[in-house]
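Today's session is about reading a structure prediction critically. Students often jump straight to the picture, but the first step is always the sequence itself: look for stretches that repeat, for charged clusters, for runs of hydrophobic residues. Only then move on to the predicted structure, which in these notes is written as discrete structure tokens rather than atom positions. Here is the chain we will use throughout the hour.
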Amino acid sequence: MTHVIVIGAGAAGTMAAIFAARAGARTTLLERTKDGGRKILISGGGRCNVLPSRVDEERFVTESSPNVLRRIIRSWPLADQIRFFEQDLGIPLEHEEESLKLFPASHKARDVRDGLMACALREGVDLVMETSVDDIAPVGHGWSVTCDDGRVLEADTVIVATGGLSVPNTGSDGRGLAVLRRLGHTIHTTYAALTPITVEPGDFTELAGISLPVTLTAKSDGEQAKASGGFLFTHRGYSGPSVLNVSHIAVRARARSGTRAAISVRWTPLGDEDWAARLRPHGARTVSGAVRAELPERLAAVLIQRADVDPLRPLSELRREERLRLVDVLVRGDLPWAGDEGYKKAEVTGGGVSLAEIDARTMESRKHPGLYLCGEVLDAFGPIGGYNFLWAWATGRAAGIGAATVR
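Below is the predicted structure for this chain, in token form.
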């Protein structure tokens, strides 16, 4: 019987262990924390956005081959993943129409984490908690796994599902990436992805607490990302799905060349012509009245000020150049920013092991037979909305089945 050791009991690792055991392997799951799955517990505000309700493959980000990425995503179709959670785990999923997200009907992330762990135990997985791995190395026809307490475990195959560097207090410390680099894998530069953006004091900080749907466009070094959705002013800057989904452009630009990516914002669904119509003379209505009709009052006041227009000016007296400045701020205004919240608040890690160095069907390393990689250690991430769990579930399943196959 093939012995598989899975390192990391997060989303990808637990799924890998389940499918390795189902495929007939003796499976050991090592986890550095006492309970595992901590990112699952905090996801979706404690509700756990298990999956998207539909998948747009173009929304994934990778420096590797998009074709390889698509093959991996398609290896376990969304409908089959939904069926696994509802039938195999007994966790009915609920579709949130507005956000295109799937949550457990209970809206409890713990049900997802506990359901996966219970399934692993039913399949016969040996869970070994509070155990960190210092190194893995090929030995003979198998692998040795050196734990931080000095124990050395041996297995026929090893699955690395150690995560990246995001939210380190959940157990992600980048140790797995360091081990894979020592083994000769190409690691595309890692960076904090899906992370809040910060501002200098005074730049919109007086608007903390205001939230609204917007459309953001970030551009830098020939790269561009556009996202629509929730936007939140915080005491340190900005957050919300729209911000997180374009943050990688800003983070990468600053890391690569120290340049600042340009981020523009359309504050409402209205375009140039729509705003021009709303700013036409209308009785005694003022500029402030017209803008406040579409935006929160405090935000409207700040945007009018940024356009250098008198908020009390009647629309009938608004000069053409003033109207153009105001429309420009409202439709494609510059969003000032200074930095980001880094890995501490990042949803995922960008970069990672090149997809060119794994078999897209089995997740086996092309450099080391018997070594399998899944989840966040790989060079791919998706937007907010269950995409990164979909990646974890798909790569974990493929790695588990692949590692259990006797060669």
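Discussion point for the tutorial: The chain has twelve helices and 20 strands.
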